[in-house]
Amino acid sequence: MPPAKLVRRAGPTPLDLSSAEDVQLLSAKEYELCSTLRLQPRAYLTMKEAMINENNQRVRVAAAAAARAPCRSFARTSGSSPRACLWSLRPHVQGYLKRGQARQMFRIDVNKTGKIYDYFVAVGWVRPAPVADGGAPATTGDAGGA
Questions:
Q1: Between the N and C ends of the chain, which has fewer C-beta atoms within 10 Å?
Q2: Crossing angle (nearest 10°) for helices 41-68 and 28-37
Q3: What is the spatial distance between Cα 61 and Cα 95, in angstroms, rounded to a whole number?
Q4: Looking at residue 10, what is its pLDDT?
Q5: Structural domains in the chain, sorted by start
Q6: Residues in the chain with pLDDT < 50?
Q7: pTM
């Protein structure tokens, strides 16, 4: 019996956003992303603002926590700044936004949120979680996630 042939399913057709409200606020790449994900510009811009604000809040909290209470190894290191110790803080204070945390912020398809998160990381608007040596995101000992 010959092996079954895999049939690749075509994705949904891109959405025409030429007459959508707030489309002029999108860059060419953002337009393409919204069209491919079939997401209206206003919804995308709301997600963009919320995700960037959340990331910036996490960075501010992490910097403030590092300045208030540097880790013990920092006390022994001369000439370093308190930011050198961010890795020792709890995950919610480390100054980055994880993909799963971004998914929890919105009630849309997790794949769409993941693609938007990846785009924001590629552009540099969101700081991703550090990657461990094995290629998976680094953990700090919290079992069960955020």
A1: N
A2: 110
A3: 7
A4: 73
A5: 23-123 (1.10.10.10)
A6: 74-76, 87-89, 91-92, 138-146
A7: 0.67
pLDDT of residue 59: 83
Two tokens, residue 13: 């057709």
For the chain, give the mean pLDDT: 77
145: burial class by Cβ within 10 Å (0-12, 13-18, 19+)?
A: exposed
Give first-to-last CA distance, the chain, whole Å.
49
Cα 83 from Cα 62, distance rounded (Å): 8
pLDDT computed for residue 81 by the predictor: 55
Q: Which three-class secondary structure state does DSSP give residue 137?
A: strand
Tokens 């930011």: give the residue.
83
Q: Is 110 exposed, middle or buried (0-12, 13-18, 19+ CB in 10 A)?
A: middle
**Complete DSSP assignment for 56-85:** HHHHHHHHHHHHHS--HHHHHSSS--GGGG
Longest dimension (CA), the chain: 71
The label of the residue with tokens 């209470």 reads 69
